[in-house]
Amino acid sequence: MNGYVQECRSARVQKYKSARVREDKHTKVQKRKHISVGSKYDETNPDVPLWGIRGLIYNHMTSKFLTLPLVFVAMVAGAQTVQPWQDKTLSSTERATDLTGRLTLEEKTLLMMDASRPVERLGIQAYNWWNEALHGVARAGVATVFPQPIGMAASFNTGAVSRVFEAVSDEARAKNTRFIEEGSRLRYQGLTMWTPTVNIFRDPRWGRGIETYGEDPWLASAMGVAVVKALQGPDTAKYNKLHACAKHFAVHSGPEWNRHSFDVASLPARDLHETYLPAFEALVKDAKVREVMCAYNRFEGAPCCGSNKLLTRILRQQWGFDGIVVADCGAIADFYKPNAHATHPDAASASADAVLMGTDLDCGSSYRALKESVNRGLIDEKEIDRSVVRLLKARFDLGEMDNLSDVSWSAIPYRVVASAQHDSIALMMARQSMTLLHNRNNFLPLKTGGLTIAVMGPNANDSVMQWGNYNGTPPHTVTILQGIRAMMGNDDSLIYEPGCDLVERTLMQSAFNHCTHNGRQGFAARYWNSPDRTLSPVAQAEVASPFRFCTSGATVFAPGVNLTGFAASYSASFTPQQSGEVIFDLFYCGQIKLWVNGNEVKSFRSNHGSRKGNYKMPVSAGETYELQLDFDYTMGDAQLNFDLGFKEPIDMAASIERVRDADIVVFVGGISPSLEGEEMGVSLPGFKGGDRTDIELPAVQRELIAALRRAGKKVVMVNCSGSPMGLAPEVEACEAILQAWYPGQAGGTAVGETLFGHINPAGRLPVTFYRDTTQLPDFEDYHMQGRTYRFMQQKPLFPFGHGLSYTTFHYGRPTLSHKRINRNQCVTLSVAVTNTGTRDGHEVVQLYLSKPDDTEGPVRTLRAFERVHIPAGQTVTVTFDLGEKELQWWDDASQTMRMLPGKYVVQTGGSSSTEALKEIPLTIR
Q1: Strand stretches in 483-635, DSSP E
Q2: For the chain, which ranges sit under pLDDT 70?
Q3: Which are the contacts of 359, defined by CB distance < 8 A and separation ≥ 6?
Q4: What is the pLDDT of residue 80?
Q5: Residue 563 in contact with residue 549, Cβ under 8 Å?
Q6: How far apart are CA 243 and CA 251, in angstroms?
Q7: How far apart are CA 607 and CA 589, in angstroms?
Q8: Helix intervals (H) in 722-845
Q9: Could you tell me where the beta strands, DSSP code E, fall in 182-329?
Q10: Residue 278, H or E segment
Q11: 717 vs 456: CA distance, rounded Å
């Protein structure tokens, strides 16, 4: 054998050898003469170690192979030809294909779950695919928190959204590098970000609509494409910056409470292709998104993650998607769970069908059964190989399988995380999201100078509300109360009076000061760096005020306590001074057990972000109750906020009396992410499982605003919500209404600046604000008739695209470069927009298309928009180039969206309202 190692005899590597420049390889081998590290792989014996763990050396004197330890292999490897999958000059597909061929079936299945196991014999590291970046890096410690996506959609500014997600991708890369350097590869630490959510917000009751970019397919597409491109980085880079994920494919928008069993049993092909698919198609074709997440529910009888129509025929075959399809978490288990879809008898059959339909990655553990699936003949191993190649290719494309030093993105410094520069971007985005809905007689902006303002409402001083959901933890949040205070002059005065809760007719009065230990106020705390409480504590402390613990930003619960894997116990004697029902109020991420007098009375657990929880217990005045709160770390950032007290009935008359000297009341109300969101346990009037059962402002807030009005107060409402609110009575009772969404860490500053005129609002509604629930079709009906501005026949409270300014704009008559075009032609529309007011401002110029003779199609549908700055008194001419994409329409004959001959109307203006639009006819021949 001439003293060098026998080459691997697999056909795959033989093919690789022939493809390489043999002369260079031969020269290197001859220089090593008698010794060389080999890479023999016996496919019949998977226990034979491979490159990266052990090597084989051939001794020409004894004609035997000797096994070498990894250390020696590493010493010699630098001078030796690498295996194909290690060769960085090969394409990621070639590397992934080679590596897949070296894996056993069991190893392949372990790589097909979100918490992918390492393959130590090949040197493949563990990788956790689950990471979140909905509006900032989420659940991984300190990070910049930008406005919720629905608020960013209100900016109608794809450039601003790109700036946000370029900052997000910088923080995500910097965090990943830090985690890898620390040897950590846990959930929320990887490079595959499961965002954006581009489902159509078809019904305002859907709790997860707050994660979307609105109700319009064109707007959702444009925003989603901007997100994906900013996250993934330029196509020309050797490695992708991150991988984005379009979710949840495809006909999915509530309800939350039955999403694991719900079936969109029938849907017109037109609704599917005209409304539910366009944003996903744009992300696949225009943005080259690298992942698509299939949804929980069924579509036409089949679970979305096992839908031949959605995943095979449309996504793979028609659109040519060659990236990864990941199942929403637990979605494969829904195939066979009796309380879910129950379309399959067991995990083996469910997993086989999901992979055959194209679902590569299981967020869960059902794919453990794939080995059984192969043994039972339900699937061929080559079908599994197809998915494994896609998964490994993605890891190679990200550089995750190579050294950090090979990947230029790893050089992004950690100081970008939650930096001042990114805070300024968060403020920019919050400013652009501010949407002025109502302004009677130009009541806003407010003027300072001897003004007394009362700030009221449940959201006025709530920083957590501003963070939205799927969020990180900012180093600092400016609440709306703080933002208003910062805008007031030295001779102005401010009164803060909450007045009411979000929904309930009580307010929490803390009784924490009635808890003692060893004669001192508060709780005694003990900590262990292990879940084993029989060990001696590593730290002991006293907690004299309501708990506010969080490990975000590497902040430990107490000195000497680890950031992960720790446990804590807090104990005190509680002697209430009044009888009644005490409330134990928690905001937590981890596992909690509450003990009273030695008995466990309640447990809580969350490892999927922080959640609210409470426990109610009757107590008697003067009686002592021994309390113990046990906390155990689960994953991600640990959090424990805790207080206890009594909820007392609100007294509106007393609250109004306390603000009697106020010239203006700013009421900051609405709802919060603790009420609307993903599959929540909330059970309050108007809310069910994260969704809403009605869309009006909660009754207690409505009553307080009406009482303030009767007391003669001028009320400005700031509405915080991630979904449309029925605010018809508030339009009558309030001088102005500002929609602030969930505005992120800088939201308070943006609200204050808007109210006092430091910025001129230009946000526009990405969703229709209906008058009330009576204007809505049945929530579970996915047909589009009667839904959103595109199909609604009634007059809404505020139309899609609506938003006021502190100046006024006048639209000239639009003109077209051609009034008649052929199907392969483009046309240019021009419209002059004049700022007729006295202030500079931004206007969102919107272009809609309609086809008058199509009685079953949309009334109009957005096909272009541009946010433009127009100085006071000046005119700007805005032009739109309209081609095949902008002018496509539903063709019933071919069952496709295409440029269809016929007569159309092109409309331009400042909202989707008929009164706001000017139109011009267009004929396509």
Answers
A1: 493-497, 506-510, 515-517, 520-521, 523-528, 539-543, 547-550, 567-574, 580-596, 599-619, 625-632
A2: 1-80, 552-554
A3: 294, 305, 306, 311, 325, 326, 327, 332, 387
A4: 57
A5: no
A6: 23
A7: 6
A8: 728-733, 747-755, 788-791
A9: 245-249, 263-264, 291-294, 298-299, 302-303, 324-327
A10: helix 278-285
A11: 10
pLDDT number for residue 603: 96
pLDDT of 26 reads 34
Is 676 catalytic? The answer is yes
Annotated active-site residue in 216, 328, 353, 696: 328
| SS3 category, 811 | strand
CATH architecture of 809-924: Sandwich (2.60)
- Phi, psi of 458, rounded to the nearest 5 degrees: -70, -15
What pLDDT is recorded for position 550? 84
* Selection from 801, 790, 728, 855 nearest residue 202 by Cα: 790
Q: How confident is the model at residue 359, as a pLDDT?
A: 98
Rounded-to-integer distance, Cα 719 and Cα 460, Å: 10
| SS3 category, 62 | coil
CATH topology of domain 428-505+652-791: Rossmann fold (3.40.50)
In CATH, 507-649 is 2.60.120.380: yes
pLDDT score of 47: 35
Helix axis angle, 747-755 relative to 420-433, nearest 10°? 50
What span, in angstroms and rounded, lies between the C-alpha atoms of 627 and 622? 15
Contact of 139 with 98, CB cutoff 8 Å: no
Instruction: Name the β-bridge partners of 878.
Output: 831
Residues 517-552 as b or e (16 or more Cβ within 10 Å = b): beeeebbbbbbbbeeeeeeebbbebebeebbebbbb
What the block records as the tokens of 421 is 């520069």
From first CA to last CA, the distance across the chain in angstroms is 75
Q: Is 328 one of the catalytic residues?
A: yes
- Output the CA–CA distances (angstroms, integers) from residue 236 to 232, 285, 392, in the order listed: 11, 17, 20
Q: Which helix (H) or strand (E) holds 25?
A: helix 22-32
Quote the distance between the C-alpha of residue 666 and its chain's center: 30
Phi, psi angle pair for 459, to nearest 5°: -105, 5
- Secondary-structure breakdown of the chain: helix, strand, coil percentages, each rounded to the nearest 5: 30, 25, 45
Q: In the chain, what are the domain boundaries?
A: 11-82, 428-505+652-791, 507-649, 809-924
Q: What is the pLDDT of residue 4?
A: 27
Q: Which of 171, 334, 676, 735 is catalytic?
A: 676
Q: What's the pTM? A: 0.87
Burial label, 819 (beta-carbon count in 10 A; 0-12, 13-18, 19+): exposed
Give alpha helix (H) positions in 836-886: none
Nearest to 212 by CA among 271, 167, 279, 272: 279
Residue 56 confidence (pLDDT) = 36
Contact status, residue 386 vs residue 316, Cβ threshold 8 Å: no
